[in-house]
Amino acid sequence: MYRYSTTNLNHLVKNRKECEPGLFHLTGSDSDEKVSVEIMLHISHSMRSITISSNNGFTDLMKIKIAARHISYRTIFHTVLILAFLLPFVFILTAIVTLEGVNKCSSIDCLGRRLGPKLLGRGDDSERYLADFYTILNQVHSEEVPEDLKIPDNFKQLVSEMKINKYNAKEFALILKGMMERSERDIRESQFQELMNKHFAATSIPKGIHCLSLRLTDEYSSNAHARKQLPSPELLPLLSDNSYHHFVVFTDNILAASVVVSSVVQSSLRPEKIVFHVITDKKTYAGMHSWFALNPISPSTVEVKGVHQFDWLTRDTVPVLEAVENHDGVRNYYHGNHVAGANLNVTSPRLFASKLLARSPKYISLLNHLRIYLPELFPNLDKVIFLDDDIVIQRDLSPLWDIDLGGKVNGAVETCKGEDSWVMGKRFKIYFNFSHPLVAKSLDPEECAWAFGMNIFDLRAWRKTNIRETYHSWLKENLKSNLTLWKLGTLPPALIAFRGYIHPIDPSWHMLGLGYQNNTSIESVKKAAVIHYNGQSKPWLEIGYEHLRPFWSKYVNSSNEFVKNCHILE
């Protein structure tokens, strides 16, 4: 709050001879800022001039000269009175500029800051300096940083070199640009390195899971109970009984298979009606058989079979799969240098991550392609539900068996509709290379995609189609084109092969993205019937998302001695 006081004007005028040199004071102070301002009114002895001055550097604010003629005291009194009325306003403007400077601005302050200096003859060069600096920055933006320019390593070094070298504004801007460009390169390299490390972590086998497989395989050879027939002889007829609910899982991950089976059984209202068909590869068969033999899922039924036990499934009868695993281009793509050929300067980390996901070696596994042979694998079954090994069932799936597919083959959740555009924004243009003439001619880029992972297959309707032949045909074309039609695994050829045979089901049955979407809604996860950890961050890996892992880990049999001895999830 500014305060000001004046000397008695009448006394001043009447006693001007006593006022040497004839002063009239206007003083003000601010209690918070501890600053005072004094404005002085100087009247000459001859009464022919009046000068207004300040004690804060603003001298001679105003000077009034009076003509050399007789002036009455009344006239002088009125003149001084008018000046006394104006002085508080001059004082306020001066005080505001003095106390607050030119860097602050409010509705009242701006008036003093902008008008005050102009009235008092002061200029404000800050805006001009800023405009000049912007001009220099625009010039530097279009210039390349010289290769021989020495770039400081940190801010402290920058300040030190500025003091020593006395950089001008343009030199400073160039150095600043060089520092920022170097930081951006370092950040991008770190991001890509992180993605590479995550890719290797996702494609490796955790020590605990490898331990579990070895111990159970050893148990198969040494323990007769681990080798008992699955299912028992009296339950064999159930394997082809269409009144039961048949679930099929293809996997070489024993722990993951145990979670899928346990979650289905525990979530079912009628577990006695469930029959599981677990199909694995030859190297995992003994360990997988041991697990389910030693950990029965009664009252449900489970069958474990190895690929080697299907007599008709040979390299001779499935030549395309032989080509996929042995094709040099395929092997180089999935097992070669993942960075070679990738322009990291123009590739975004997100795009690079999706390309790494497409290079997962599982996509050339025979086990991963077996789903296209479901009608041949189960010739006596009419309908099955296919489950991936990275899913968890949280709700009874019995209603799925009552869905009328309307003559279609595949009941699946479409992935082009939903609030999350990253997970549920998938159309054909995401999976296929539409710059290729064959793709551009045959497919619609805006056609909606769908998800593997939880699918209802009508095997009777399937057997009446040429889905498998179409699948094989497009696989051959992609191999001929050196993998230029698509890059990602088994879904693209399946999207083509099942065109016209998809029956969309409600998205609440199958929630996707828990393996690559960190900000997944927990409430949505709780409501979903099936949650799918598709992506790199599987729940059994250290790179899995901690807040999503409990939905999976609660179905792990932590009391099992093999699980405990292999320190799984510890």
From TrEMBL:
The chain crosses the membrane at residues 75-99. Pathway: Glycan metabolism; pectin biosynthesis. GO terms for molecular function: polygalacturonate 4-alpha-galacturonosyltransferase activity. Its main location: Golgi. It comes from the Eukaryota. GO terms for biological process: cell wall organization; pectin biosynthetic process. Its EC number is 2.4.1.-. InterPro entries: GAUT, Glyco_trans_8, Nucleotide-diphossugar_trans. It is found in: Golgi apparatus membrane. Gene3D superfamilies: Spore Coat Polysaccharide Biosynthesis Protein SpsA, Chain A. It is a single-pass type II membrane protein. Keywords: Cell wall biogenesis/degradation, Glycosyltransferase, Golgi apparatus, Membrane, Transferase, Transmembrane, Transmembrane helix. One of its GO terms (cellular component) is Golgi membrane. Belongs to the glycosyltransferase 8 family. This is Hexosyltransferase. It comes from Mikania micrantha.
